[in-house]
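Hi V.,

You were right to ask for the full record rather than a summary. Here it is.
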Amino acid sequence: MRIDLGYATAEFHRGDELGGMVVAHSSPGPASGYRPEVTEPGALTAVEGDRWSVVLAGYAGLRPGPDPEEFLRRMRRCVPPLRTVADACPMTGDVRTYRFVESRRRVHSRLSRFPGALAVVGDALASVNPVYGQGLTLAALEANALAAHLRSTASPWEPAWGYFRLAEAVVAGAWQLLTAADLAQPHVTGPYPRGYRLQKWVADRLTEASVLDPVVNTAYMDVVNMRKPPAALTDLRLLTRAARVLAGR
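Predicted structure:
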């Protein structure tokens, strides 16, 4: 799936402008009311050495570049915490950029042959949009699948079909979650999974409810942080609670 993401990272001296940690994000796409000339997707967090770490992201022709003045201008179009840092804190060091062209998934269990005593993990198995911060978690879950395979009765010298089936189940959940978010970008053209529009509508409502209700938020973040599979968000009790929260609002 071609997503053509670019992001840029810079660090700033941190004083007492804000609390210890702030994460701010705007979701691009017409449904959210996002307008690139007004609101920039970005995030910041407090790190060691009394510094703020700021990341700005953009897709296709809106990818951020390495120019510090451009970086500051874009920060001032972000949500208020990032604007505060842009106005109050000096930048330290250079702006570092990275481009990620496409998410890619390789399904090894479809092969008819594979060498024994070999396994595939990390980006070689599935390379996903890094802006969501889930690549390391996905790799750790794949390592856990490999450990489970090696504890089984399967010989490590035979093709690791059992491992691939376990790992690909983990990858399938992450791929479903991450590509659904990428498909909300206007320049990403698919492929769209069956029932995508309904899934996106439900996911958007759960996102809204997660900001308002701690129970919905916990379930939502369990899926985002890959502690539970995406199917956990289809629980009828959770959907009913989210509906009540939104109706009450």
